[in-house]
TrEMBL record:
This is Uncharacterized protein. It comes from the Eukaryota.
Length: 238
């Protein structure tokens, strides 16, 4: 998991991590996660029957149990109109939560978004798709697994405030990542070897776990909090 273990976890991250563990990815090697999901997918999609087979083979949880009562909701929200899941979405979640080296995780993430196996990803897609997708799942999909069955109501409310703060700096945080990892500003593409190198070096590889990814955006919020729009209660109403 790289250097993330040396970073202190906030109370919000402690309860999110506990909620994430309900899915069961944390002890599974990322290569096994990747190969199993790909084995049961078809044309980049996974239906409910295939997902159940994956869950049995990997022994992950795709339905509510015990205090983990938002797993059903997470998978429901991941389903598309056709009732299927995009392989990309499920792999991002599995890789960010799974067990593996930073290099392995970065390599697999690159392959997730290099869907045509061209060996390169356009720089514009890093900002417009790659990091947006990772943000979506680390913050929205996984962050919202927290429930009052796992913590007090006050902590759940604190968690919602935490997630809201991260969402406020989504664009700024993604820009900082792209500015930090793209050395050649004239290049239009990045290959797998370079992507792996920069993702392992930037922020000491901490962006390759859901905890580290969220923590980076929290640091962006703390460093440059968005300006609050003050509403004058005495102003004239239209």
């Amino acid at each position: 998991m790289g250097c993330e273990k040396s970073r202190p976890r906030s109370s919000e991250e402690i309860i999110i991590s506990a909620a994430e563990e309900g899915l069961g990815f944390q002890d599974i090697n990322v290569h096994l996660i990747d190969s199993t999901f790909r084995k049961f997918s078809h044309m980049g999609r996974i239906n409910q029957t295939q997902l159940k087979r994956i869950s049995r083979q990997l022994r992950i949880n795709i339905v509510d149990f015990g205090p983990h009562v938002k797993i059903n909701e997470m998978f429901y929200n991941l389903r598309k109109e056709e009732g299927e899941y995009f392989l990309r979405d499920l792999l991002v979640i599995g890789i960010m939560l799974g067990k593996g080296s930073n290099a392995d995780k970065a390599s697999l993430l690159f392959q997730v978004f290099d869907e045509t196996s061209e060996g390169v990803i356009e720089i514009s897609r890093l900002k417009d798709q790659v990091f947006k997708t990772i943000f979506q799942h680390c913050v929205n999909s996984l962050g919202n697994l927290v429930t009052t069955q796992q913590c007090s109501e006050s902590l759940e409310l604190k968690n919602k405030k935490y997630l809201d703060e991260l969402k406020q700096v989504e664009a700024d945080g993604i820009k900082k990542i792209c500015d930090g990892i793209i050395a050649d500003k004239t290049s239009r593409v990045i290959d797998e070897a370079e992507f792996v190198r920069v993702m392992c070096e930037f922020e000491m590889g901490n962006l390759l776990s859901s905890f580290g990814f969220r923590t980076f955006f929290k640091e962006v919020f703390n460093t440059s909090p968005p300006k609050k729009v003050w509403s004058n209660p005495f102003g004239k109403k239209k």
